[in-house]
Amino acid sequence: MAQRGYPDGSGPSLLYAVKQVELAVRRHLDDLLRPSGVTTVQYTALTVLERCPGLSSAELARASFVTAQSMADVVSALEVAGLVARQRDDANRRRLVLDLTPAGKDLLARLAPAVVQLERLMVSGLDDAEVQQLGRGLASCRAALGRDE
Amino acid sequence: MAQRGYPDGSGPSLLYAVKQVELAVRRHLDDLLRPSGVTTVQYTALTVLERCPGLSSAELARASFVTAQSMADVVSALEVAGLVARQRDDANRRRLVLDLTPAGKDLLARLAPAVVQLERLMVSGLDDAEVQQLGRGLASCRAALGRDE
DNA sequence: CCAATTTCAGGTGTACTGAAATAA
DNA sequence: CTTATTTCAGTATACCTGAAATTG
Fold this sequence. Notes:
2 copies of one chain form a homodimer. By secondary structure, the first copy, chain A, is mostly helical. Chain A contains 6 helices and 2 strands. Chain A has a two-stranded antiparallel sheet. In chain A, helix 2 (40-51) crosses helix 4 and helix 3 packs across helix 4 (68-80). The N and C termini of chain A lie far apart (43 Å). Chains A and B meet through helix 1, helix 2, helix 3, helix 5 and helix 6 of A and helix 1, helix 2, helix 3, helix 5 and helix 6 of B. Chain B binds a DNA duplex through residues 39, 41, 56-58, 66-74, 77, 92-96.
């Protein structure tokens, strides 16, 4: 017993549902990533960096809705692990530009299949149209709550 | 710049989208709850207890996918704050039954309008049918990833 | 002088493992 | 004896605020 979702639309059920799904995803992702030695937060930073190479730590922080100090910890750990490298930006010498190292790219490539599989598991009860609709719904929620853009 | 979502369905975009929405929700909820002195995790425990009075801390932990030890910290803080009370279960004297105090019920009642408003903000870009579909989609994801039932 | 980036120092909240006491 | 609940101790991660140094 305990926990069964709200019986109807009376309560803040969607806020709770989002939290529950995110929690379940994180658990699976933690298990999946543990052997590789990176945490879920570190992995997320790596994937953002994969899509947007050359970001600074501060930009990465803004993209992730955390403070620059918080992201500094994550980036620092990734640098120690040899998964990212930092380099002074000559155009703006305050910035330390981040990029994946070959080891970092390797790690992402090795993890990709399992992560794709996890997403497939998550949506295994939905058909293609419903998956697309879910993506649009989440994007709309994020935009409505967002602090940026 | 930085962050724009995946251009197509190539990457694990839904995992990322869920995380982003949950993070945005938590930020809003943190801001909303700060004056009341309870954290988002504590608030969530209170709402679960509102729906299911008489749970033990261990049951609450299972409902929230955390260990009994982790939940014990949360419950302990709520007890110190006078928002929940614990009492030995006479039928099973290992269990410490949890219930909201009048102060706890009061707090939830005072917070409810703002929380409902936050959920409305989140789905403000969706029509009623899309909101329902989002709820079904999230429930399906949770069930597919879930560890219980 | 002011703004942005990074770094250092210190703190809190959340959650974990391991181990013990109590009770069914 | 085994299992469930609770509690204690220690630890790690991920956030935060505040303050300082560097550069634009």
